[in-house]
Amino acid sequence: MNIGEAAKMSGLSPDTIRFYEKRGLILSTKRDEKGHRYYAESDVGWLGLLACLRGTGMPLAETETFTHLVNEGEHTVPDRIDLLENHRERLAEKRAELDAYEKHLDEKIAYYNSVLKSQKHEAAQ
């Protein structure tokens, strides 16, 4: 498939795919006789994983490290697990932080709704 199709299937833009390729994050970019990139289903799966990692806030440097570990072979699986588990822990911390912010916003919205209700009640009298 071409880069546009791979972009649609992976959730990444063609520009992002090109950027990842330049950074060495795309494991096996193939080109046809005209020099156009083409991607296999396995490439789209990898692009989807990159989209997930970046979408969850994994820094580009860690994404590059993960890619290099994958390229090095199966003996790096323990290192990959460590990297992913550390990232998951950061996600859990961020989720807890966002939950606290959301609770604060809910409280503020409830307060302002009570102010509006009070104002309407006073205006009705």
UniProtKB/TrEMBL annotation:
Gene3D superfamilies the record matches: 1.10.1660.10
Claim: DNA-binding is one of the keywords in the record: yes
InterPro entries reported for this sequence: DNA-bd_dom_put_sf, MerR-type_HTH_dom, MerR_fam
CDD domains attached to this UniProt entry: HTH_YyaN (cd01109)
Keywords carried by this UniProt record: DNA-binding
Statement: the UniProt record of this protein carries the keyword DNA-binding: yes
Domain HTH merR-type stretches: 1-69
Protein name: MerR family transcriptional regulator
Top-level taxonomy: Bacteria, Pseudomonadati, Pseudomonadota, Alphaproteobacteria, Hyphomicrobiales
